[in-house]
Amino acid sequence: MTFNELGLSEKVLQAVAATGYTSPTPIQAEAIPHALAGRDILGIAQTGTGKTAAFTLPMLSRLEQGRARARMPRTLILEPTRELAAQVEESFARYGANHKLNVALLIGGVSFAEQESKIMRGADVLIATPGRLLDFAERGKLLLTGIDILVIDEADRMLDMGFIPDIEKICKLVPFTRQTLFFSATMPPEITRLTETFLHNPVRIEVARASSTASTITQGLVASVPGPAKRETLRRLIREATSLKNAIIFCNRKRDVAILHKSLQKHGFSAGALHGDMDQRARMTSLDAFKAGDVNLLVCSDVAARGLDIPDVSHVFNFDVPTHAEDYVHRIGRTGRAGRSGVALTIVTHADQKYVDEIEKLIARKIDWVGGTLADLDAEEAAHPSLAETKRARPSRSKRPQAEEETRAATTAERPRSPRARRPGEESRKPVAASGRPRPSRSYDEDDVPVVGLGDHVPMFLLRPVRLKSSKSSPEKSESTENA
Ligand code: AMP
After folding, report:
1. Which residue, 101, 265, 294, 371, is the most exposed by fewest CB within 10 angstroms?
2. Is residue 447's pLDDT more than 80?
């Protein structure tokens, strides 16, 4: 099949030809004719299937008639994250090269004034994250009553992020007669309910189950002990990887993204970071630096990385095993794209075995161990107990190894904390959470809780980690560095 058979306009066909695509992907072939005919669509497809063009191309064709009015966008695309929204905007720029359309982006972390002026000019296409969109609508700066086409993309991710009530509100603000194009990689019950409420007699198109992993990806499990030694395992994997061009490294928690990022930089790696707590400018800067090859490692959380289309990623490392099996499929799908080969290695500790079992069940295959199983690691530790002890031990304060100093420095740098007067009955030197309750002293497992204090204005001397003098420093030092 060719694009010419789908009913797209001449301008759109020319833009598609300029991108070099020779034939439509299955979701494009199935969805585009129905979308052009004005039907609602329920597309069960993950990123990487070409679903963005499946809704962008027919929208462009349909937008050729009519024009936008101030404050009343003609079409609306909802995306769960700012990066995905920005990516869809790029698609409009590429596929809409022959159109003079006004495309506005409404996402958090960007100035209101700039976004408002675009909407005031009249947007043909509004691409938004749900929170910022409702903000605008509730302030009366935006009317959704002129929407002809509504796209809800990555609906299951919206569910994970708690956006479903916002989506329901938005669906009630747009005209009943609009066309809805709805995409989700999976169909949990909440999403099915949403589609039953807001889609009118949709065409259901299912292209690839979220449980399938591309055959172009070589997958492997790597046994490791937990704690700082896990970072050494990762460094070893990066150093030993043959044909590593660049890599995305996933952590389960955003705080760990920041810690690992600092640690890698400290060890001389060229690394950027991407997590949901970073402001929009910092996120875009990191992503652009990675895409441009200015840094070749990107440490990410799931939320920030989901659906990102970076065409040429050679390696994915799961620093943490994802606790939701489907996240594994999405993570490793960042490599091996568009027929290229890729490598995905997952670092596994004993505590992770149950999650590995769930992943293997979902993808219906066993993943090979690289360099020995967890049992082999146990046997090695049993044979060399002193080495194992050094790797695992959480050292006393006076013998804190470099890795922990890094952890402290990284966490301190991210969230500056400040001292304040001790209240009666309160233990001294305990950090204080936003709730005002003292928190236990820092550990690797503490949660991301904002700290009340001097904000960004903490004097540097208060941020410096406390070092206690050790009586015999040199031999310990070299040992600690080894374990960092
Ligand atoms: P998506 O699933 O929309 O994130 O698209 C994944 C990747 O496939 C993007 O890099 C697109 O540029 C690319 N792509 C989309 N449609 C086609 C096509 N018909 N032929 C080749 N590549 C495509």
Report:
1. 294
2. no
Q: Which of 2, 4, 21 to mutate to test the pocket of ligand 1 (most atoms within 8 A of CB)?
A: 21
Q: Which residue has the higher pLDDT, 413 or 53?
A: 53
* CA 203 centroid distance within chain: 29
Task: Give the model confidence (pLDDT) of 60-104 as tens digits.
Answer: 999 999 888 999 999 999 999 988 999 999 999 999 999 999 999
Residue 7 has pLDDT above 50, yes or no: yes
Long-range CB contacts for residues 435-444, cutoff 8 Å, separation at least 24: 442/408, 442/411, 444/227, 444/407
Q: Which of 150-181 are b and which e, b meaning 16 or more Cβ less than 10 Å from the residue's Cβ? A: bbbbbbbbbbbbebbebbeebbebbeeebbbb
Nearest CA to ligand 1 atom 23: 50
Cα gap 82→62, rounded to integer Å: 25
All structural domains of the chain with their residue ranges: 3-206, 217-390
Which residue of 4, 19, 87 sits with most ligand 1 atoms within 8 Å of its CB, as the best mutation to test the pocket? 19
Residue 317's H or E segment, with its range, is strand 315-318
Place of tokens 């409009």: 92
Predicted confidence (pLDDT) per residue in 188-246, tens digit = 889 999 999 999 999 999 886 555 666 778 999 999 999 899 999 999 999 999 889 99
At 213 the pLDDT is 67
Q: Is the pLDDT of residue 450 over 50?
A: no
Buried b (16+ CB within 10 A) or exposed e, 279-295: eeeebbebbebbbeeeb
Angle made by CA atoms 317, 322, 326, in degrees to the nearest 5: 105
The CATH T-level fold of domain 3-206 is Rossmann fold (3.40.50)
| Cα distance between residue 315 and residue 234, in whole Å | 12
Q: Which residues line ligand 1 (CB under 6 A)?
A: 21, 24-25, 28, 47-53, 309, 311
Q: For residue 51, which atom of ligand 1 is closest to its CA?
A: 3
User: Given the CA of residue 45, which atom of ligand 1 is nearest to it?
Assistant: 2
Contact 275, 322 (CB under 8 A): no
Residue 212: per-residue pLDDT = 61
Of 386 and 225, which is predicted with more confidence?
Answer: 225
pTM above 0.70, yes or no: no
Look at residues 12, 131, 119 and name the one whose alpha carbon lies nearest to residue 61.
12
Residue 296 has pLDDT above 90, yes or no: yes
In one-letter notation, the amino acid at residue 303 is V
Angle between helical axes of 10-19 and 51-63 (0-180°, round to 10): 150
Q: Which residue has the higher pLDDT, 404 or 215?
A: 215
CATH architecture designation of domain 217-390: 3-Layer(aba) Sandwich (3.40)
Nearest to 315 by CA among 208, 399, 420, 242: 242
